[in-house]
Model the fold of this input.
Amino acid sequence: MSNLVVPSDSAQPSPNFCANCNSELVMHQPDEQLPERLLGTCSKCHSWYLIDAAEGVMILLPEIQQSHTA
Done:
């Protein structure tokens, strides 16, 4: 996992971009009780990020290798 600093400006929020391919992330809010914690997904390269908007931190989640069994 790698941590990335996300510039936060509460007056004018800006979209977050994928650190791998620089595409705009699709933002998800999995828990309504924690609105500052988001999940960002990239439609282009399929990277996933955990984002804490309050702390200005974005964590790239490791890729999960799927095993194929016969």
User: Anything to note?
Assistant: The mean pLDDT is 81. Residues 2-7+19-60 form one domain. The first strand starts at residue 2 and ends at 5. The chain is about 0% helix and 30% strand.
